[in-house]
Every structure is written in structure tokens, then in C-alpha cells.
Specification:
This protein is α+β, with helices and mostly antiparallel strands and about 210 residues long. The protein is built from 6 helices and 10 strands; from the N terminus they run αββααβββαββαβαββ.
Length: about 210
């Protein structure tokens, strides 16, 4: 390390200097009270100090980016291994003050949440459905979880398809008759301060 680099590092450490932007111009955020001599030195070395702060910021950003990329790569590899049956999903029991049950972490949590077998509980973690634990146990493969959820997923898909078919039929009827056809109706809190009401009835039509 050369003397100039050592001097700049020493000043940054001593005064906890940070890069500051004021009125669109780069400056130095300094803590403490430098002497007149130190202040003059800081002003003289400002370009070098700014460059060093930027270098450190870029280095930190690159390190954080690399860390996140490594974490995501590890997560994707874990997902691949679980889907391929090379790695089992393991549940962990948690005895909480307000909620007790089995929870799951990481990639396993993502996979079970997609299948509807895990739900995130704020301040607790990913809670695994009791029915899944009872049927699959505390350790199982991803394919076993997929097979367990197949009936529910197929039923939900059939329900969505039927609802969409009914919706399209109503649009077709509206086109044929030239008249609006009621699609759905629901209630919402009244949003007109001039009216004395608690609920509004909202209707949606196919035109």
C-alpha cells in the first residue's frame, strides 16, 4: 500500500467519511471536527477520497450482486434436485406461542406454496397444512406432494374452466341479443358521502 492510499484510508476511517450529494454536486460527509490542517488536507484530497469511496461502493455492489447470484443458483439447484427426487422435502416442527405445527424453509417452502400445501404466516414462517403432514409425513419427495395435490388441483382447474365457459357464453348471448347480460354481482362499502348507506351493490355486465 502506497503512502497516498494509506493517507486516504486513514482519513476515511478517522472521520467516517461518506460520499454526499448536495445540489447535484459530489461532496464529503464528515463526522467529527477536523482541525484546520486536517480540513485543508481533506479539501486538497477530495478528488482522491471521492474516487476511493466510489471504488469501495462499486466493490461492495459487485460483491452483493455475486452473493445474490450464488444464492439464487443454489436455490435453483435445490429446486431441481427436489423435483428430480434427488433431495427430499423435510418438515420441521415449531412450537410457537400462537401457532404450533410443521414449517418448511427455502426452496422447499417455494415448492409447497406453489402446490398450496404451505402458507406464509407473518412472524412465524411457512406453515405446512396439517392434512399434508398427516398424509405425507415429515419427509417426502416432491412427486409425492404433487400426487397428493392432484385431485384438488384438477378440481380447481375444472371449476375455473367451467366459470370461463359460462362467462364466454354470456358474452356470446350479449352479442346475439344486443342486450347486456349480467356477469356477476357483489357488494362494496358505500363510497358516496351524500348517501346514507353502508353497502353498494355492484353489477358487472357483458355488453
Amino acid at each position: 500500500m502506497n503512502k497516498m492510499k494509506a493517507k486516504i484510508d486513514g482519513l476515511i476511517k478517522k472521520f467516517k467519511i461518506e460520499l454526499a450529494i448536495k445540489d447535484g454536486k459530489e461532496g464529503l460527509g464528515i463526522r467529527g471536527k477536523p482541525t484546520a490542517a486536517e480540513l485543508a488536507e481533506l479539501k486538497a484530497l477530495k478528488p482522491e477520497i471521492v474516487a476511493e469511496l466510489k471504488r469501495r461502493a462499486a466493490e461492495k455492489w459487485a460483491a452483493e450482486k455475486a452473493k445474490k447470484a450464488a444464492e439464487e443458483a443454489a436455490r435453483q439447484e435445490e429446486i431441481r434436485a427436489m423435483k428430480a427426487g434427488e433431495l427430499k422435502i423435510t418438515l420441521h416442527y415449531h412450537d410457537g406461542e400462537y401457532l404450533s405445527g410443521y414449517k418448511v424453509f427455502g426452496a422447499a417452502a417455494d415448492l409447497l406454496e406453489e402446490l398450496g400445501l404451505a402458507e406464509y404466516v407473518d412472524g412465524w414462517g411457512y406453515h405446512v397444512a396439517d392434512a399434508a403432514v398427516k398424509a405425507l409425513g415429515k419427509e417426502f419427495t416432491y412427486s409425492q406432494a404433487v400426487e397428493f395435490t392432484r385431485p384438488a388441483r384438477e378440481a380447481a382447474e375444472a371449476q375455473r374452466a367451467a366459470a370461463e365457459a359460462e362467462r364466454q357464453a354470456k358474452f356470446e348471448r350479449a352479442r346475439e341479443t344486443g342486450r347486456p347480460v349480467l356477469l356477476e354481482k357483489w357488494t362494496e362499502p358505500c363510497n358516496d358521502p351524500r348517501e346514507e348507506c353502508s353497502l353498494d351493490i355492484v353489477q358487472q355486465y357483458a355488453m
